[in-house]
């Protein structure tokens, strides 16, 4: 060091960095000075004492970090003790040369609280990873003082505030990852990061422009600024970053054109500029990006044509330009060199010309998605479609001007899951080969000019969930084999020439949500078997030739919101049971031959906003109530003898009708009442006599006692046989007061037998309460009681068996099963309908008091049923009544007021339902170890809502639904809106103050709208 210093000084003295002895003539004084500079380093000097290594600062910093941070996992609390060297602590890495901390990796440790600012005292720290926790507060500015820090990872937390300016001025930093937080403000300037290779601040709330200084970070390889609120243009100076491999600027608010300098990124593999406001054309300079694999330009305002040179990107895997203003034909050779191409998205543009380019795509043997819907393509579907990749999952050509017939070769695409050819000008019949696509889940052929019949081979497509055949010229009958498609959710075939009757098998599809058959020639009756459509939401049968009575079974469709039976030939009376369609919003029965009176039960239909009973033969008084106060006169005109409803200008009902009815009632009471009263007295005496005999029989013979039940008698011995003498192998679960066994009765009926442990205090009271509650409720979303068996030593409930067990097992078992978002929404809706019935529709208000996933049971069709009414309280006045009780509810789901006042209201169930919604969305139990102190499940979700919703959802939703929705141009946004809406309902339900919570009758329509918003997002 000293030698180098002296030589440098000498060089400076002579005015040159390189000294050539032949180029200078030295004077005597110069020789003396030079000699002195050379001798100084070797002169004796005082010895510098060795400084001992002091690691006490590191120890105190780590202990202070431990004290300031909540450790929900318990790993740090258990491991970070002074009994051992901190170099052995979990997550702590030390230098091999000295006991100093060089790395701190606590990723995914469920940490909570702020980041301790004195971490900056770890002066040897080179890597700090605190990602994927629940840390909050701001990022300490003091972290910028760490002189050796190369890696800083704080992503996937709850951090907020601005990004510290000091961090973007660290000469040692190689990697900065701050993604998925709530950071705001703009990116700091100036940026002085001479060694930086990776910057990721995606999924935050950043605003402002991209700092110009970023272009001077020559070593940058990865930039990720996705999902923020950044504005301005994409700087052309970024073209100086020749080492760049990944550039992610998507989902911001960038404007202007894509700079031509982007062609300088010769090493670029990923370019994501989608979901912005970019304009201009696709730069031809993209042809220079020979290593480009992923190009996302979708949902912008980019115009012009697709450059021919883009086809030279031989390493391209995904190309997405959907949702722009692109015009002109697609280059015929587009896929010729793209042998690795997997995804091609060009939907929602104004592209024209033919589909000749499809022939070039036959070279792409890994291609799984072709999406060119909603353009102006013409011509025919080429036969080359049959030679596309055998891995093709999605082929979407809807909403174009395609003519000709459907190529039979499409049947070769055996992996096809989604086929969308609707809204074109296709003619001819459906090729028989298409019915053999057994993996197909979605088939959209509507709004064409297709003819022929629907083949019975449709029953081979057992995985089909949606089929759209509407607005064609199909004729013949709906094949009975459609009943083989057990998972069918949408059957859409309106405006055709379908005739004959609706097959009974169609009414037996348990998952059917939408049935749309209007404007056909269907005839015959509506079968009472339609009551099996437990999930149905939408039925439209208007303008057919259907006749007979309207089946009272319609009243069993508790989920339906839309029902149109107009323009048919139905006759007879309107069933009173239609008044039980508590979710209905649209009900149209106009232009039939219905007679009799309007059912008074219609006054219960509180959500109807469109009712039409006009042009029938109805008579009598128009019922009172909110519904008929709001309808218009056009909804009731054309009937022969309606009266009442002065606000609708109908004539008043004749007074003599009321008088004659009153006289008839008086005569009836005068002669009939004494006889009825005498019979009741005799019956009561006889009942008391029989009851007394039965009580004595039970006391004298316990083992031979029989069960008091609702439908059948079941003895103790039959239950013992059914459960193999209550064998543990048949055990379904344990509760606080007993066990539940699976059993098979003598007639083969499979049941669940809930046996109470009578030694537990309160078990008998719980048995009585559950018998009393279940005995008086009837609803498709409540567990049905089959029988009871009770004597002095044994009490059991015999309940409907649910083969898919409890929701808790689906969410949290070791062998966790996968629930799709649609299934979760259906479960939420089922539970809400059950609670709405208990709170608002039963003649007495019933509060469940212990709603949680283990009390939600799922039948064979995944329909949810509320169970365990052991502590339910019967409320005899109204939904605002308060009943007090002790030992109710389960921690985490129990409303806050239960612990303070002990008061029970329906709002307590609403709170539990809100927590249940949050658990379904996040997959987190409210008693998860990560929740401690003031942080609970609700607060954790509040912190992430609405900005970081996608980061807190159950990983299974992200794995299943996000993957499935990627084929939609707006898929992720659809899911985000859906999840945000669910969370909004959950947060309203789970507010601390009972009066601020929703009521269940308000929750049901909101969830129904959320469900419809997801189900109806089709590609047709």
UniProtKB/TrEMBL annotation:
Residues 1-49 form the signal peptide. InterPro entries: Kinase-like_dom_sf, Leu-rich_rpt, Leu-rich_rpt_typical-subtyp, LRR_dom_sf, LRR_N_plant-typ, Plant_RL_S/T_kinase, Prot_kinase_dom, Ser/Thr_kinase_AS. Its EC number is 2.7.11.1. It catalyses: L-seryl-[protein] + ATP = O-phospho-L-seryl-[protein] + ADP + H(+); L-threonyl-[protein] + ATP = O-phospho-L-threonyl-[protein] + ADP + H(+). It is found in: Cell membrane. Residues 726-1007 form the Protein kinase domain. It is a single-pass membrane protein. The chain crosses the membrane at residues 671-690. GO terms for cellular component: plasma membrane. Keywords: ATP-binding, Cell membrane, Glycoprotein, Kinase, Leucine-rich repeat, Membrane, Nucleotide-binding, Phosphoprotein, Receptor, Repeat, Serine/threonine-protein kinase, Signal, Transferase, Transmembrane, Transmembrane helix. GO terms for molecular function: ATP binding; protein serine/threonine kinase activity. SUPFAM superfamilies: L domain-like, Protein kinase-like (PK-like), RNI-like. Its main location: membrane. Belongs to the protein kinase superfamily. Ser/Thr protein kinase family. This is non-specific serine/threonine protein kinase.
């Amino acid at each position: 060091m000293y030698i180098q210093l002296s030589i440098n000084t000498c060089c400076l003295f002579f005015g040159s960095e390189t000294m050539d002895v032949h180029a200078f003539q030295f004077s005597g004084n110069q020789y003396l000075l030079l000699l002195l500079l050379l001798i100084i380093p070797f002169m004796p000097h005082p010895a510098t004492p060795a400084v001992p290594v002091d690691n006490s600062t590191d120890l105190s910093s780590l202990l202070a970090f431990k004290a300031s941070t909540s450790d929900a996992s318990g790993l740090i609390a258990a491991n970070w003790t002074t009994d051992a060297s901190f170099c052995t602590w979990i997550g702590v890495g030390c230098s091999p040369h000295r006991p100093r901390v060089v790395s701190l990796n606590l990723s995914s440790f469920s940490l909570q609280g702020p980041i301790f600012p004195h971490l900056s005292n770890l002066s040897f720290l080179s890597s700090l990873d605190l990602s994927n926790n629940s840390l909050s507060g701001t990022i300490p500015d003091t972290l910028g003082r760490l002189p050796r820090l190369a890696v800083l990872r704080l992503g996937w937390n709850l951090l907020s505030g601005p990004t510290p300016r000091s961090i973007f001025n660290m000469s040692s930093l190689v990697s900065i990852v701050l993604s998925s937080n709530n950071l705001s403000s703009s990116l700091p300037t100036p940026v002085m990061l001479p060694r930086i290779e990776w910057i990721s601040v995606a999924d935050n709330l950043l605003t402002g422009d991209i700092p110009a200084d970023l272009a001077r970070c020559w070593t940058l390889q990865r930039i990720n600024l996705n999902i923020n609120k950044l504005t301005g243009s994409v700087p052309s100076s970024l073209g100086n970053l020749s080492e760049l491999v990944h550039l992610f600027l998507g989902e911001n608010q960038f404007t202007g054109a894509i700079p031509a300098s982007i062609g300088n990124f010769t090493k670029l593999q990923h370019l994501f500029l989608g979901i912005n406001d970019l304009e201009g054309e696709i730069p031809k300079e993209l042809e220079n990006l020979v290593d480009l694999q992923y190009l996302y330009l979708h949902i912008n305002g980019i115009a012009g044509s697709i450059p021919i040179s883009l086809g030279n990107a031989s390493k391209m895997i995904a190309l997405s330009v959907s949702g722009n203003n692109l015009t002109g034909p697609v280059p015929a050779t587009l896929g010729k060199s793209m042998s690795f191409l997997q995804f091609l998205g060009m939907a929602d543009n104004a592209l024209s010309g033919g589909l000749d380019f499809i022939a070039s795509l036959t070279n792409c043997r890994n291609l799984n998605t072709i999406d060119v819907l909603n353009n102006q393509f013409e011509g025919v579907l080429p036969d080359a479609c049959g030679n596309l990749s055998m891995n093709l999952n999605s082929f979407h050509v809807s909403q174009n001007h395609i003519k000709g017939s459907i190529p039979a070769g499409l049947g070769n695409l055996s992996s096809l899951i989604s086929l969308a050819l609707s809204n074109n000008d296709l003619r001819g019949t459906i090729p028989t080969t298409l019915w053999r696509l057994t993996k197909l889940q979605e088939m959209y052929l509507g709004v064409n000019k297709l003819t022929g019949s629907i083949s019975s081979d449709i029953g081979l497509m057992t995985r089909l969930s949606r089929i759209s055949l509407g607005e064609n010229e199909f004729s013949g009958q709906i094949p009975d084999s459609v009943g083989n498609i057990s998972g069918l959710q949408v059957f859409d075939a309106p405006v055709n020439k379908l005739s004959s009757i609706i097959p009974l098998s169609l009414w037996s599809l348990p998952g059917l949500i939408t049935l749309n058959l209007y404007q056909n020639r269907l005839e015959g009756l509506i079968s009472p078997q339609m009551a099996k459509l437990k999930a149905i939401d939408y039925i439209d049968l208007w303008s057919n030739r259907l006749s007979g009575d309207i089946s009272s079974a319609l009243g069993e469709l508790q989920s339906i919101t839309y029902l149109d039976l107009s323009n048919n030939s139905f006759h007879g009376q309107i069933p009173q049971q239609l008044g039980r369609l508590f979710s209905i919003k649209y009900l149209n029965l106009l232009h039939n031959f219905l007679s009799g009176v309007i059912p008074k039960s219609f006054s219960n239909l509180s959500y109807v906003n469109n009712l039409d009973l006009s042009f029938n033969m109805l008579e009598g008084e128009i019922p009172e109530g909110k519904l008929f106060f709001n309808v218009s006169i056009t909804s009731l005109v054309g009937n022969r003898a309606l009266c009442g409803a002065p606000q609708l200008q109908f004539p008043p009902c004749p007074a003599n009708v009321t008088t004659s009815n009153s006289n008839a009632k008086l005569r009836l009471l005068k002669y009939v009442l004494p006889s009825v009263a005498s019979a009741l007295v005799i019956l009561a005496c006889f009942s008391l006599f029989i009851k007394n005999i039965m009580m004595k029989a039970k006391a004298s013979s316990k083992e031979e006692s029989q069960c008091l039940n609702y439908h059948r008698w079941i003895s103790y011995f039959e239950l013992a046989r059914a459960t193999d003498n209550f064998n543990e192998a048949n055990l379904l679960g344990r509760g606080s007061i007993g066990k539940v066994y699976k059993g098979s009765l003598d007639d083969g009926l499979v049941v669940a037998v809930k046996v109470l442990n009578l030694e537990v205090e309160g078990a008998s009271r719980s048995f009585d309460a559950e018998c009393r509650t279940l005995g008086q409720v009837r609803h498709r979303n409540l567990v049905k009681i089959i029988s009871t068996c009770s004597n002095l030593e044994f009490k059991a409930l015999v309940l409907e068996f649910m083969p898919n067990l409890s929701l808790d097992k689906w969410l949290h078992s070791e062998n966790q099963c996968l629930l799709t978002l649609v299934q979760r929404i259906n479960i939420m809706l089922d539970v809400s309908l059950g609670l709405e019935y208990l709170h608002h529709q039963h003649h007495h208000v019933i509060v469940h008091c212990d709603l949680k996933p283990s009390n939600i049971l799922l039948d064979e069709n995944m329909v949810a049923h509320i169970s365990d009414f052991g502590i339910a309280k019967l409320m005899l006045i109204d939904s605002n009544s308060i009943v007090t009780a002790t030992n109710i509810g389960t921690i985490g789901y129990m409303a806050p007021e239960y612990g303070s006042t002990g008061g029970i209201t329906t709002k307590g169930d609403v709170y539990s339902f809100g927590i249940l919604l949050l658990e379904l969305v996040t997959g987190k139990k409210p008693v998860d170890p990560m929740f401690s102190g003031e942080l609970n499940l609700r607060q954790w979700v509040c912190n992430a809502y609405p900005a970081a919703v996608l980061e807190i959802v159950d990983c299974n939703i992200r794995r299943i639904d996000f993957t499935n929705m990627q084929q939609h141009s707006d898929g992720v946004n659809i899911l985000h809106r859906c999840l945000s809406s669910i969370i909004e309902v959950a947060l309203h339900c789970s507010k601390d103050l009972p009066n601020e919570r929703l009521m269940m009758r308000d929750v049901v329509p909101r969830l129904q709208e959320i469900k419809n918003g997801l189900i109806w997002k089709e590609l047709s």
